[in-house]
Design a protein that fits this description.
four-stranded parallel sheet; TIM Barrel; alpha/beta; 214 residues; 16% strand
């Protein structure tokens, strides 16, 4: 049974970390997902660009009851509907797209659009986003989030791309409600080589750092 979106948002805030899958094949996506789940991740985002994205989402949902499985790089209403029909419980976009936020509201699904400037972040929140993703977070680092929190203290923000074990504590101190783990955990070379044990170890280390940072 799909959770209410308020419960999904609460779960993201509680756990504080989302593993983000960007792979060249659906088999790699499933292997990487199993690896990071074994390492402790309970929230996984499958990005459009992964071949057969909706099938991968559906398979992860059916095989991992209780975990939060979402869809990323959502750019169109069609993608959003396909992802939701496959079982996705949250939708992530790289930028602020009105129609993807609207479909989330219509279907009761949490939305996390990407934004960067204060205007984009505020507009995303005003349109009904549940969390706003700073993307790419690597551009200015935790100091940028800290500066944003001054005028925009009530908007929950999740940095993605540019987050690693070395700066996790700084991101949370700056006010992040959660972080997205991309190549710092899901190293493309390890995925290509099928080094799943190494990915599991990376996931475990990352989540230990999240726990210590919070």
């Amino acid at each position: 049974m799909r959770r209410d979106k308020s419960a999904v948002v609460a779960r993201i805030r509680e756990l504080g970390a989302v593993a983000i899958l960007r792979t060249q094949t659906s088999e790699q996506a499933l292997g990487a997902a199993r690896a990071v789940i074994a390492g402790g991740f309970r929230i996984v985002e499958v990005t459009y660009g992964v071949p057969n994205t909706t099938e991968v989402i559906a398979q992860l949902v059916s095989q991992n009851p209780g975990l939060l499985i979402g869809a990323g790089t959502i750019l169109t209403r069609e993608q959003a509907n396909h992802a939701i029909d496959a079982g996705a419980e949250f939708l992530v976009s790289p930028c602020v797209i009105r129609e993807t936020i609207e479909i989330g509201r219509e279907r009761g699904i949490a939305t996390i659009p990407g934004a960067f400037t204060p205007t984009e972040i505020y507009n995303a929140w005003s349109l009904g986003a549940d969390i706003v993703k700073i993307f790419p977070a690597v551009a200015n680092g935790p100091e940028y989030l800290q500066a944003l929190r001054g005028p925009l203290p009530n908007i929950p923000i999740m940095p993605t791309s540019g987050v690693d074990i070395g700066n996790l504590a700084d991101w949370f101190r700056a006010g992040a409600v959660a972080v997205g783990a991309v190549s710092s955990v899901l190293d493309p070379a390890l995925i290509r080589n099928g080094e799943w044990d190494a990915l599991t170890a990376r996931a475990r280390d990352f989540l230990d750092a999240v726990a210590n940072a919070r």
